[in-house]
Amino acid sequence: MTPKSRVRAVLAASLAVATLGTFAAGVGVADEKDGPKDGKQHGRVAEREIAALFDQWNAALLTGDPEKVADRYAEDAVLLPTASPRIRTERAEIVDYFAHFLQKRPRGEKVRSVIHVLDRNSALDAGLYRFHLTDPKTGVTKAVDARYTYEYEKREGRWLIVNHHSSVLPAEG
Fold it and tell me: Rounded to two decimals, what is the model's pTM?
């Protein structure tokens, strides 16, 4: 190897190390800015903030007003509801579903929740919940266990449901 080739090799290696170091530093800054990667908190979004969204949704149910419940959903939301075989993709369909569901005076409670904060503007909450439903004809209340997934996005500063899947919990098998 000629002295000129050695100089070129050393310069190329130095450039590669400098580039890698700059990239690694940039990744470190991005990770630090976004917060810990343990799912507990990203930036200013914490699991407790996401958990509170269910409480807000449940409070909307307790009003008995399907419009207030539908206000918790984004305009382009998808709802796969517990008590209907139809996929709801338009606000009017979501309002219609809740107009019927709210006749049972539902009250929800989480049994188990697993929250994943994806970034500052999106999160998932999946788990099990129990609904206490009252038969409008008999007044008898019964509990229905279901599994759920909520996908939230923060849009224009407001957390909205963009996907909501709920299904009756199957028997152990």
Answer: 0.74
Nearest to 57 by CA among 108, 95, 103: 108
Taking the C-alpha atoms of residue 58 and residue 81, their distance in angstroms, rounded to an integer, is: 15
Structure-token pair, residue 34: 């976004």
Task: List C-alpha distances in Å: 128 to 34, 45, 85.
Answer: 29, 22, 19
Among 138, 125, 128, 93, smallest CA distance to 108 is for 128
Cβ atoms of 118 and 124 closer than 8 Å = yes
User: Cα separation of 151 and 53, whole Å?
Assistant: 11
Residues 51-58 have a mean pLDDT of 96
pLDDT grade for 173, boundaries at 50, 70 and 90: confident
